[in-house]
Design goal:
This protein is an alpha/beta fold. It has 13 helices and 11 strands. Strands 4-3-2-5-8-6-9 form a 7-stranded mixed β-sheet, with helices on both faces. A two-stranded parallel sheet has the order 1-10. The chain has a two-stranded parallel sheet with strand order 7-11. Helix 1 crosses helix 12, helix 3 packs parallel to helix 4 and helix 7 packs across helix 13. The longest helix is centred in the N-terminal third of the chain and has 33 residues. The radius of gyration is 23 Å and the shape is elongated. It starts with a helix and ends in a 5-residue tail after the last helix.
Length: 409
């Protein structure tokens, strides 16, 4: 009886893994058939990009307890970025005195490039709240500019970008985004971890995951006309679409969602906003991307990934339904590709428990000496899953190798 129960559980989990693996295999095939890889931009095209009129870009940096990194981040990126028409908006909290003082010193040192925004509530709040406070300040400038007319000197952005206080921004990212045209509502550039030692296994998972996601998953989504999710940094929104969101919903970033970046990108897609993922190589042949360090401690990593799963797979589903709430006309995803993208986003709801159950089953079988059925169909299921698992490892190694080289690959 005990062995029969373990066999049934093994077969059930095997079928679950098979479904998930075939799903991933489909993405692999789409990537291969589409020949998707970073575009090489000729030097002549780069020169034309740099000669184009620069649209104003506002860069929002929410900063809670970022005193140790904020100054170096701003000064370093100010010296690196090959673009002039942009401005930092640093969101700080009134009870985070050390960060406020550093931000104000930066504002004094770079008055034309840095503006400090003090939130209306003490921290910590949510990233969405801080971003909304910054949006309100930008909107006040836009309103003053409309009142003052063509002679106004107010800074009114065409694009609004999100970055964190740890980001290393690519020198040409603003130029590349500007060159895509003013018609876009949403542009996401790749996000990669800064290189770390191959001995750091927790931090290393981010190297692996983001390499595969931003080199394969997101390009396939764009090819199949799926919604493109925001990565939380390196995301550029048109000021026009943010104004539409404010009027339509009464807010830009959802303060009741742990993944406000994913949620806002879904709302933009549902409203028909034009999205693109900018996967290109710079003038030196390197992938144009924003880079930062990710958590290297197990506890921080677990909390972060639980937050991602909760916001993406649970809160967004609860707030907006699978396709969109019936009481919001014109706010539906109506094509099968979009529905498939949402399925993949919510896959963790059953894939993560299945993985935990499988590890538990393995431990029980090994510890108790129990036997799984020798039926040929059971063996075939396990063998197919083993082959597909090996393919997953090869794929992840391949994309990690592309970004970080053979050691990490």
């Amino acid at each position: 009886m005990w062995n029969d129960f373990l066999t049934v559980l093994a077969v059930f989990l095997g079928v679950v893994f098979l479904i998930g693996s075939v799903d991933d295999l489909f993405i692999d095939l789409c990537h291969w058939i589409g020949g998707l890889k970073p575009r090489k931009i000729p030097l002549e095209a780069w020169r034309k990009w740099k000669d184009q009129p620069e649209r104003p870009i506002a860069v929002m940096i929410p900063a809670w307890k970022e005193a140790s990194v904020l100054e170096s981040m701003v000064r370093t990126n100010l010296s690196r970025i090959q673009y002039d028409n942009y401005k930092w908006y640093i969101g700080v909290y009134p009870n985070d005195i050390e960060t406020v003082e550093i931000a104000q010193a930066l504002e004094k040192a770079y008055p034309s490039k840095v503006q400090v925004v003090v939130t209306d509530r003490p921290g910590p709040t949510s990233k969405a709240h801080c971003l909304n406070c910054i949006i309100r300040v930008i909107d006040e400038s836009a309103q003053r500019a409309r009142a003052e007319g063509v002679k106004s000197k107010q800074f009114v952005p065409h694009f609004v970008a999100i970055h964190d206080a740890e980001d290393v921004i690519h020198p040409d990212s603003f130029t590349a985004v500007n060159a895509q045209g003013g018609h876009l509502d949403f542009v996401q550039i790749p996000i990669f971890s800064l290189p770390v030692s191959a001995k750091l296994w927790v931090a290393g998972t981010y190297l692996d995951e983001f390499s595969e996601i931003h080199m394969k998953e997101i390009p396939v989504r764009e090819m199949l006309n799926m919604p493109i999710p925001s990565a939380g940094v390196g995301t550029f929104f048109s000021w026009k679409i943010l104004s539409v969101l404010e009027k339509r919903f009464g807010y830009c970033f959802n303060e009741n969602n742990l993944t406000e970046d994913y949620e806002i990108s879904q709302r933009i897609a549902r409203l028909g906003g034009l999205q693109t993922f900018l996967l290109i190589r710079d003038q030196n042949g390197q992938i144009l991307a924003t880079r930062e360090y990710f958590p290297d401690a197990m506890g921080r990593s677990v909390r972060q990934k639980v937050r991602w799963t909760t916001g993406i797979a649970l809160q967004t589903l609860n707030q907006w339904g699978w396709f969109g709430p019936s009481k919001t006309p014109g706010y539906y995803f109506k094509n099968i590709a979009a529905a498939y993208g949402l399925f993949r986003d919510r896959k963790s709801l059953w894939a993560n428990p299945a993985a935990l159950a499988a590890w538990t089953l393995l431990f029980v079988v090994v510890a108790s000496g129990a036997k799984i059925s020798n039926h040929p169909w059971v063996h075939l299921l396990l063998l197919v899953n083993l082959v597909l698992f090996a393919l997953r490892m090869v794929q992840r190694a391949r994309f990690t190798n592309m970004v970080y080289g053979k050691v990490h690959g």
